[in-house]
Amino acid sequence: MAPTLPVDPILPGATWRPLAQSDAAALEAAVEAARVADGGEEVRTLDDLIRVLTDPRAPADTNTLGLALCDGSLAGWAIVHERFHAQLARRVFLDGDTHPAVRGRGIGTQLLQWAIARGKETLAGQPADLPRVLEAFRDLTSTGAIELHVAHGFAPVRHYMDMRRDLAAAIPAEPAVTGVRIVPYDAAHAEAVRVAHNEAFADHWGSEPVEAEDWDRDFVGDPHFRSDLSFVALAGDEVAGYSANYCSEADWAASAVRDAWIGQLGVRRQWRGRGLATALLIRSMTAFTAAGMEAASLGVDTENPTGAVGLYERVGFVVNRRFVRLRRAAGE
Predict the structure, then answer these.
(1) Domain shared by 85 and 46, yes or no
(2) Is the distance from CB of 143 to CB of 324 less than 8 angstroms?
(3) Distances (CA, A) of 140 to 68, 153, 185
(4) Are residues 53 and 187 in the same domain?
(5) Is the dihedral of CA 256, 258, 264, 265 positive or negative?
(6) Number of structural domains, the chain?
(7) Domain membership of residue 69 as a residue range
(8) Phi and psi at residue 216, in whole multiples of 5°?
(9) 309 with 193, same domain?
(10) In the sheet where 90-98 sits, what is the strand order?
(11) Residues 71-87 pLDDT 10s
């Protein structure tokens, strides 16, 4: 069951209620209005939001809340995503925002309070063998949202950045890695790449093994995944590394840059230090250029233990945006 809905609708004729798949178009309009107001570059399409509203890890009838206006539009929304299959912590991720036309009236506060209550309720049903936490990601420019979370017990625990590389600049030669061949991604590689991903990211802060169903849905099953622009590094028949890459045409107008994303780049521990990550980066950028892209983008933990930030800088990536990960214990 979901926590009690807020009592005060704040706006005349507005109603607090769970979201449904039929709200996808209204949610798309509200999310886009917030993106434009905040200067964001990630456009969430109608298809993206239908996927969100049908995600079994965020059941719409219990884990979403919207403030619906009389015309069916949304003044605000919150979504609680459950991530319980873990080794380090049981987590819920809170997402939501207020339509910019009605900000400053307390809607965001009610949305966050409801999301915290729902998150705590779901976590209470999980085993106490691991820490149980609520988390949120915010652009560092969203100072009001960050302050609101801090006022409700959240604290910054990690920083991330998006980096971008202009593909008009010369791309370095791809280094040869003895004993490894880089081949285009094929669906037959999916499970082996998932296993390699889990091993490659095992020493990354906060990283959790990805279950097969989540890999199929969120990674290679993401509608923006580009298998034709993705690569697998093979040592014999064994996956040594990989680059899973993505494109979202809807983002191109928002950022004024036609880019492709290096979404997941991983090298298994025994293959590190041989230039394989550089080779995968350069192979990806070369493919992006051939496909007519103007830039390559990626996201990275600023404290990545493998030296990824330095690697990206050496091949020409520069910081584009910065983000913060906020956390509070469920018991607080």
Answers:
(1) yes
(2) no
(3) 28, 18, 34
(4) no
(5) negative
(6) 2
(7) 15-153
(8) -65, -35
(9) yes
(10) 15-17, 64-68, 74-83, 90-98, 132-139, 318-329, 155-166, 295-301, 259-267, 238-246, 231-235, 181-184
(11) 999 999 999 999 988 88
